[in-house]
Design goal:
single chain; 267 residues; alpha+beta; 5-stranded antiparallel sheet; 14% strand; rod-shaped
């Protein structure tokens, strides 16, 4: 605005100077006077117009430059914010990676411990399976009949089997539970035994746990049974027939409970 006022004032002065200019020299030709009077104002106006156009262009360029500068500053600030955000994310990722590495190491150690524990458990179960097979030969027939499905599920080769450790463990525990239950009870079963006449006959067998058994037939023949390395061994003992018959009557609830003396021989 100040430049514009200055330009206007300058133009006014130039115009005033042109109008009030001194007369030409007396010896100048009279025909040149009108041309000199007209060239002064036109030249001043042209100069003023060019100067004003230059000021307008400068002002326009300055405005555009300021706008571009502001846009550039905004972009710089935006980029700086994005860089800071990316740096923060990188820090978080590095921290997460370090934490993950620590967890990975911990999980690897736990996995190794678990593998070692599984191997030890597998060896222990294999040992129990071998012992149970040996013991099952000394189990009485009623107990063997009850645990036979569990015995058949035990793998023949513990080192090469698809049976899981959990199932193998359940088999072992199931057999031991049944054996313990049978050993802590007095049970009676109907079985077939070869009697003194060489003929098989049905007898009542009373098992006292896993260590002793007595049998008596309907004809009054009696005997004792004991576990052996290859199965139970039975021998006749006619003298215990009345006592065994009495025990059978008690177990069948046909007689009142009472103490009945029987011979015991444990090996």
């Amino acid at each position: 605005m100040n430049g514009l006022l200055f330009s206007c004032a300058l133009g006014a002065l130039l115009l005033a100077g042109g109008i009030g200019a001194p007369a030409v020299a007396e010896d100048a030709p009279a025909a040149d006077a009108p041309a000199a009077a007209t060239e002064g104002p036109e030249s001043a106006r042209a100069l003023l117009a060019k100067w004003m156009e230059t000021e307008r262009i400068i002002a326009q360029e300055r405005s555009q430059w300021q706008h571009s500068r502001d846009m550039l500053r905004s972009r710089i600030e935006l980029t700086r914010g994005e860089v800071q955000a990316q740096e923060e994310k990188m820090k978080q990722l590095r921290a997460a990676d370090a934490e993950l590495g620590a967890k990975r190491g911990s999980l690897s150690a736990e996995d190794q411990e678990a593998r070692q524990a599984l191997e030890a458990l597998s060896d222990a179960i294999a040992g129990l399976e071998t012992e149970i097979r040996g013991l099952s030969a000394r189990f009485p027939e009623p107990l063997v009949a009850k645990i036979r499905p569990l015995l058949e599920r035990m793998p023949a080769d513990a080192a090469h089997t698809k049976v899981s450790l959990a199932e193998r463990f359940q088999n072992v525990v199931g057999i031991l539970n049944e054996a313990n239950k049978f050993d802590s009870d007095i049970s009676m079963n109907a079985e077939v035994r070869t009697l003194s006449d060489g003929k098989p006959a049905e007898v009542r067998v009373v098992y006292v746990g896993l260590g002793q058994a007595y049998f008596v037939s309907a004809k009054g023949e009696a005997g004792v049974g004991r576990p052996g390395p290859d199965g139970w061994l039975w021998e006749a003992d006619p003298g215990i027939a009345p006592a065994v018959a009495q025990v059978v009557e008690i177990l069948l609830a046909k007689s009142k409970p009472k103490l009945v003396p029987l011979p015991v021989s444990l090996q």
